Amino acid sequence: MEIDVRHIAKLAMLKIPEEQVEAFEKELSGIVAMVENLPEIPSAATLLEPGNVMELREDAVVPSYPRDEMLQNVPQAVAGCIVVPKTVE
């Protein structure tokens, strides 16, 4: 399987040095090959163990910091929201 590391890096907004591209291609190919060789699970029901019941904690409302106090630490806030730089082109 051919893996285009440059394309994956572009999608993930990563900069990979040209001398490392081949090493990443080999590593990713090995990972994909390993995943392809994993055995099939016959059913999702086999993942549950009747004797091992998961106990969930009670939901509880706990006090938190007031919004105004928290927003004092941010560089820029508008209408009670934190303003961050655009990250998607």
Task: Describe this entry's structure for a reader.
GO terms for molecular function: ATP binding; glutaminyl-tRNA synthase (glutamine-hydrolyzing) activity; transferase activity. Belongs to the GatC family. Heterotrimer of A, B and C subunits. With 89 residues, the protein is mainly alpha-helical. It has a domain at 1-38. 31% of the residues lie in helices and 4% in strands. It is built from three helices and two strands; from the N terminus they run H-H-H-E-E. Strands 1-2 form a two-stranded antiparallel sheet. The chain is flat and about 55 Å long. The two termini are 29 Å apart. The model has no long low-confidence stretch (mean pLDDT 87).
